[in-house]
Amino acid sequence: VLRGIFMVSLSCLISACGLVAMKASQDCEQDRPLFKRWRWMLGFGCMIGAVPCTVSALSLIPLSLAAPFSGLTIIFSLLLAATGVLTERELLSPTEVGCTVLVLCGVSMVALFGPQSSGEAPPDVVLERFESAEFAIFAAALTVPVLLWAPAVALPSLSKCRDAVDACGFGTPLSAFSAAACGALSQLFVKVVSVSVAHGGTGAASPWRHPPAYIALGGLGIAAPLQLWMLAATLGGGSVASAVPMYQSLLIVLSVAAG
Q: What letter would DSSP give residue 89?
């Protein structure tokens, strides 16, 4: 369990570096072509680099235990923003400092009093739950809002709709929810893939002899890029101190619900 907690904490630190770098790119490099946006490339590399740590963590501890530790990403992001290492310096207000302390206390409580065993379900149980009607309903509930909001962000023809939503103050929250929904689904897919890899083989009981492992792999290929895209839209709509906690809090809630 301690090894899983360490890996998920390391993943949070790498992800925080990626979030802050991508935010800096949105502020300073938006008018440059993608291949000249080195901050975006750095952020993207960090987000990809965090994936192996997440896969390792989810193979050791349940998703419901790993998800609350995502709160560390908020702390790391705020500290990086306060130092001004990767982006313009953002000083923390007393309220933000207090909220950071509360998040740290919450994560510590989970580490101390949360499940102390991996509680890992057998591979056949994981795959069975992945194919269940409950998962289908949960996945649909997360996917529908993304499918409704993503075209408004992407298509110039819907810019008036997007501007109207932004004017009401809902643009950034919708982007944050969409990014968090894709992130929660990505973590679910990673969980299925990590279990399949850990218990893989060539026998009849191998997870790779059943469709869910391949569905999860394909779903990860769709959800992960969507998460990064909607996350970029979220970071473009607010400061690190507001956008990152909003996104990460939603991600924690949805991931815990998924676990």
A: -
